[in-house]
Amino acid sequence: MAESRSETLCVAWHGGDRFDIQIRGHSVRIDQPRDFGGSDTGPTPTELFVGSLAACVAHCAERYLHRCQLPAGVSVTVRYDLGLQPAHLSRVMLEIHAPGLPEGLRDSFTAAVRHCPVYNSLYMPPEVTFDVLTTDHEAVCHHA
């Protein structure tokens, strides 16, 4: 059985509603739309979360097609609803477009897609803790 891994990423503020997520040498900008006070230089955290789910599903789907030696070219369209009090995603609907998938493999394809770690994290939520630091400390982030 595979062991779990521990990973670290960092989010640093860059003025206004802008934050950069540093992940393994990659940088992803997060912002808010102009009509919510941001400067719209990147997706919102919620959009990135939903996009991560869709990308994870697409990745698992492509891996399945590759293993079965079927034509590649999956795309995923997501529609989602936001709930209030507390703010949360109340519904996420994914449409997986797999034009080369034979009808007889639909169930095994769906089972493979359900191995997506982001999807599984919604059903088996991780323990989330907060450690609020208010004094100088050794920064994990390296501001660019």
Automatic annotation (TrEMBL):
Per the record, the domain of life is Bacteria
Say if the entry is tagged with keyword Oxidoreductase: yes
Keywords in alphabetical order: Oxidoreductase, Peroxidase
EC number(s) of the enzyme? 1.11.1.-
Q: Which Pfam families match?
A: OsmC
| UniProt key word S-adenosyl-L-methionine | no
As one GO molecular function, the record gives:
peroxidase activity
Q: What PANTHER family does the annotation carry? A: OSMC-LIKE PROTEIN (PTHR39624:SF2), PROTEIN INVOLVED IN RIMO-MEDIATED BETA-METHYLTHIOLATION OF RIBOSOMAL PROTEIN S12 YCAO (PTHR39624)
The name under which this protein is listed is OsmC family protein
Q: Which organism is it from?
A: Microtetraspora glauca
